[in-house]
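Good morning N.,

You mentioned wanting to compare the apo and holo forms, so I went ahead and generated the holo version with fe (iii) ion. This is what I fed in:
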Amino acid sequence: MNILCADFVLTCNDNFDIFYNGAICFEKEIVDVGNKDDILKKYKNAKITELPKNSVLMPGLVNAHTHLEFSSNIATLTYGSFIPWLNSVIQNREILREKYSESKTEKLLDDMLKSGVTTLGNISSFGIDLLVCKKSKQKIVYFAEAIGSVALALDALYSDFKARVYEALDLKDEKFIPALSVHSPYSTHPIITKKVVELAKNKNLIISTHFMESYAERCWIDNANGEFKDKFFNNFNPDIKPMYESGLEFLKFFDGVKTLFTHSVFANESELEFIKSINASITHCPTSNRLLVNDKLNLQNIKEKNILLSLGTDGLSSNTSLNLWVEMRNAIYLHTNDEIDSLAKTLILSSTNFGAKALGLKIGQLDKNYQSDIISFCLEEIPKNISNLCLQIILQTKSVDLIYINGEKVI
Ligand code: MCF
Ligand code: FE
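and this is what came out, ligand included:
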C-alpha cells in the first residue's frame, strides 16, 4: 500500500473536492483520499512519499479523441476551412499513411504520457497503429473506424472494418479497450451505421462519431446544398444526395449504445436535446475546430443542457500537439465569452472525470475504488487568489513528475 502526500489533492470527483495538505492511499485501486494527518493515522503500514513544495496530485488526464495514424501531417493538409481540408485529406491520405511511422508514434505516446495523459481515445482508420497502441503504457480505447458511402462497395468496406475490429478484440486487456467508430453522417452509409451499432450492442462496445463539425455539414444534411455539394461531392457525382434525412435521423441510430459525438459545433437545439436524452456525450476539440471550421462549441449551452463534455486534441491532422495541457490553454484563449475560473474548472473536469465517464472507464477521479491512475507535478507559484487555482494549474503545467497507472509507477 502506497501513500502520496501533496500540498493540493484535486480529487476531480463530482463535488470537485480539493484537500489542502492532502494525501492519497492506494494499491491497484484507490483505498482512501483525505487530509494528510487523517490518512497517515489510518494506514500505518503504507509506504509514504512526501511530494515537494507546491505539489499537486490529480487523476491522470484523458485525451478522448486522437487520430495517431495521421501523425505525419505537419503542413500537408489545408487549414482554414473544412472542405479544403477534407479535399486535402482525400488527396494526401495515402502519402500520410505511407509516412506513418511506428517509432514516431511510440515517441508521441511517450510524450503524451510525460505530459500526464494516462488514457486516450484513438480513432483508427486503417489498423496500422494496432500494435503500438496495444504495447503502449497508457490505457487506450481503440475505435476501429467504419466509413463509406458507395452502395456497391459497402459489403467489402464492412468486412474490412469487421476484420480490424476482430483483430483488436483478440488483443483486449485491461489497458487496451477495443471500440467502434462511425466516421460521420456525410461519409458513412446508414446500412453501415446500422451494422456498426448492432455490433456494438452485441459485443458491448462504445462508439465514437464525428457529428456536425462544420457549417458545410449543417447545410448538406439540412438542405443538400453548400460547400459539400459545390466543392466536394460535385467532384465525384453531381447527383448525390445526403444519406440521412436529418441530423436527428443519424443520431437516432445510436440510441441504446454509449456514444461520443465529436465536435457538434453546429448541432442544433433538438439534436443536443436528443444527445442528452440518450445519455451520450460530446467531445470538444477546440484547436481542431479553430483550424478547420473557424468556430467553437457553445460551452454554456452544453452546460445548461447538462451534457457530458470530454476534451480531445483530435489528431496532428488538425493540431500541432497532443498535449492536453496545451489544449486546455488554447481553450482558455478561444472561449473568450466564458468566465475564466469556471471555464478552467470545466476543462480540468472534462480532461478527467467527464472524459473517463464518456469512455466508460472507472478512472478520472481520486476516490475510493477508482483505478489508481494518478499524476503529480509542482506549481512554480501558488496563486495568491486561490479562486485562480484551476486556471493557474492550466497556465503553468506542461509536463508531470510522477505517473501511476493501475497503481504502478510508470515515470
Ligand atoms: O476530426 C478531424 C476532422 N473531422 C473528420 N475526420 C478526421 C479528423 N482528423 C482525422 N480525420 C480522419 C477521419 O478519421 O480523416 C479521414 C477519416 O479517416 C477523413 S474522411 C476521408
Ligand atoms: Fe477527429
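The chain has a mean pLDDT of 98.

Happy to go through it together on a call whenever suits you.

Best,
F.
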